[in-house]
Amino acid sequence: MERESANTRDQAPPSGPAIVVEGLTKRFGGRTAFADVTLSVEYGEVFGFLGPNGAGKSTTVRTLGTLLAPTSGSATVAGLPLHPANSGEIRRRIAVMPESPGLYPRLSVAENLDFFAGLYELDHRRSRIERSLRAVNLLDRADDPCRSLSKGLRQRVGLARALLSDPRILFLDEPTSGLDPLAAHDVHELIDGLRKRGVTIFLTTHRLAEAEALCDRVGILNTTLRTIGRPDDLRERLFAKTLEVSTRAPLTEPDSVFADLPGVDGWRRGDDAGEHTTYVLTITDADLAAPAVARAVVTGGADLLTLNPSRHSLQEVYLQLVNEDVEAQAR
Ligand SMILES: Nc1ncnc2c1ncn2[C@@H]1O[C@H](COP(=O)(O)OP(=O)(O)OP(=O)(O)O)[C@@H](O)[C@H]1O
User: Fold this and answer.
1) What ipTM was assigned to the predicted interfaces of this complex?
2) What are the chain's domains?
């Protein structure tokens, strides 16, 4: 009877940050893959790394995963400085799931996992394989050859492979790339399940909705790190807060209606829709501004139809930053 191996996920999280990156740069000859990246990720966090094609996301993951040596800068991964002498121990503490799961099509799911468990020199292989397959809901497909699986299921086997070593930190490179929405949703649920079990996840993605739904914080990379923060904070940092007010008919004296209201900094006419009149107010605090604006509009003699605080998506933040780079390059 195989005894369960020590499971890092059941232990208290190690102290200190999971990943610390300081001024990290990777060049391939004259081409800079990423430059001067500084960030840190806490244990238990799901961190999203967003960026357009060629932004340097995969190269960052491969560098932090000890597969590539950085050109300059420093990093600590799972408590160990990123240095060739520590590569073996870092690899024992983390797992990297590359964009393509890299499985042997003729081998069954369990045989594939057994092969990799052997390659990683893991103990208690049978119980690890079973636990990993259970984590990705694939126990019933253990004996199926990988070639018979759909792309979504193969991706799940890739995730099971990454989980074999009970990693403290899991790097997922584009885990839902090429998956249909249903299969992508399954992977999202699995990632959410891993987060609940305390696994630290560093995830690269093109999918902004994915980052918004799954990640505690995101970094936007376009060779250099353009910004980093919680999705909500990024939206607030990049966009002025507004309140859109629509009335049935134009206000006769909007200047006096919107003057001196708490939380309101200014106003302009918006794009009128049909019969309605729209005003866009710049505000500092929606909770303060909205009731005051509602009262003022009604006192000003107009029928108030709607009152909507601005909701910018992470996509708008992303496009704004990446487009700024495109415009800067064109100058
Ligand atoms: N082994 C390599 N040799 C030379 N250049 C490379 C190598 N690997 C990556 N690059 C270059 O580094 C840059 C960053 O590539 P990387 O694959 O990290 O970007 P990415 O953000 O992951 O892109 P994608 O979303 O398309 O996968 C690109 O210009 C790429 O061509």
Assistant:
1) 0.96
2) 15-230 (3.40.50.300), 240-309 (3.30.70.3100)
